[in-house]
Amino acid sequence: MSTSTSPKSSLAKLGFYPKPKTFKVMVLGQAGVGKSALVVRFITRRFIGEYDPNLEKVYAFQTIIDNEMVYFEVLDSAGDPHESEYSNLESNIRWAEAFILMYSVTDQCSFDECHRLKFLINYNKRRRRLTSSMKEGILEVPVVLVGNKADLAGDRMVSTEEGHRRSKDIGCVCFHEISVRESIEQVWSVFRDARRFWRVSSKSPRLRAADGCDAHPAALARALAPADPKHSFCRRWTEIDVDEEQEELAGAAGVVGAAGGAGGAWRSDSTSSSGREGDEAGEGDTFRARASTDSRLPPRPARARHPPPTARAPAPASRRMSVAMRGNNASTY
Ligand SMILES: Nc1nc2c(ncn2[C@@H]2O[C@H](COP(=O)(O)OP(=O)(O)OP(=O)(O)O)[C@@H](O)[C@H]2O)c(=O)[nH]1
C-alpha cells in the first residue's frame, strides 16, 4: 500500500500557505459624506465622530462573511482630492474590484456627485476590460450606492425613492440607505452585499445575459437577497449594463458608437465613451470635462503608478486589522 501526499499538503506541513485572495473595495464619494466613519465602523464597530479629512487610507482587515474568511483591503479615498491627485483617483479605481459609492441624504451635491463618480468608474473599468483580454469575458464591477446619515431626518434633502431611482439609473447593483452613526448592522450589510455581488460576478464573468443573469440561480438568489428589507434595495444588472456589453463587443470589433440612442442623458454619455480606445489620448481631456458635473475637472497628468500599494494583514488570527495611511502627512504605508 502506498500513500501519496500532494505538493500542496507537503508545503502546508512545512508551514507554507498560499497567499490569501484579497477583496479590494474602494469607498468613494464627496468630502464629508461619512466614508471614513463607514470604514472605521466596519472594522472597529465604533462610531468615531471626527477624522482627518482628505487623508487616503488603505485598511487590511479579515473577517468571516457567509461562513468564509474574507481578506478585505478597503481604500477610504479622499473626498476632495487636490488637482494633482485626480490621476491617483483613476488609478485607485482601476485597482479596486468593488465600489461603495456614498452620498449623504442631507447633501444634494454629494448625491449629484455620485453620477460623475459612477461615470469615472465605468470609464476606467471599461478601458481595463478592453485592453486586457476579451477571452476572459466581461467582468462586472459591483458598485453599491449608499445614502448615509439617515438619522438626520430633519435635514434630509434626498428621499429614499430618489436614491433608489438613481441607483437604477446609473447601474449600481444595489442601494442601501443607512446611518453609520446609528447602526453597525446596516454598515455590515453594505460590505456583505459588495462582497456577495463581487463573488457572483467574478465566478461568472459573463453574468449579464441579454435578459438578465445567467449565473447559478441559488448563488444569485443569495447575492441578490436584501439583507435588511427596511433599508436595502437590491436589483439586477440594468439594461444600461447590457447596452454597454454590446458596445464593448462592437468596440472590440472596431465599430465605434455601435449602440443605439434610447435612454436618458446618462445613457448617451455612457454610450459615447465606448469604443474610444484608439483616440483616447487625444480626447481624454474632452472626456474628463464631460465627466465633471461642472466641466472643471483638470486635465489628466502623467499616468500614475498602478495599482496603489496596500498594507496586507498577516493570516493567522480570525479578526485582525492593520491600517496604512497615505497623504500629505505620511510617506510610507
Ligand atoms: N449624523 C451623522 N453624522 C455622520 C454619520 N456618518 C458620518 N457622520 C459625520 O459626518 C462627518 C464627516 O464624516 P467623515 O467620515 O469624515 O466623512 P468623509 O467622507 O470621510 O470625509 P473626507 O475624509 O473629507 O472625504 C463627521 O463629522 C462624522 O461624524 C451618520 O451616519 N450620521
From TrEMBL:
<protein>
    <recommendedName>
        <fullName>small monomeric GTPase</fullName>
        <ecNumber>3.6.5.2</ecNumber>
    </recommendedName>
</protein>
<keyword id="KW-0378">Hydrolase</keyword>
<dbReference type="InterPro" id="IPR027417">
    <property type="entry name" value="P-loop_NTPase"/>
</dbReference>
<dbReference type="InterPro" id="IPR001806">
    <property type="entry name" value="Small_GTPase"/>
</dbReference>
<comment type="similarity">
    <text>Belongs to the small GTPase superfamily. Ras family.</text>
</comment>
<dbReference type="InterPro" id="IPR051065">
    <property type="entry name" value="Ras-related_GTPase"/>
</dbReference>
<feature type="region of interest" description="Disordered">
    <location>
        <begin position="257"/>
        <end position="333"/>
    </location>
</feature>
<dbReference type="Pfam" id="PF00071">
    <property type="entry name" value="Ras"/>
</dbReference>
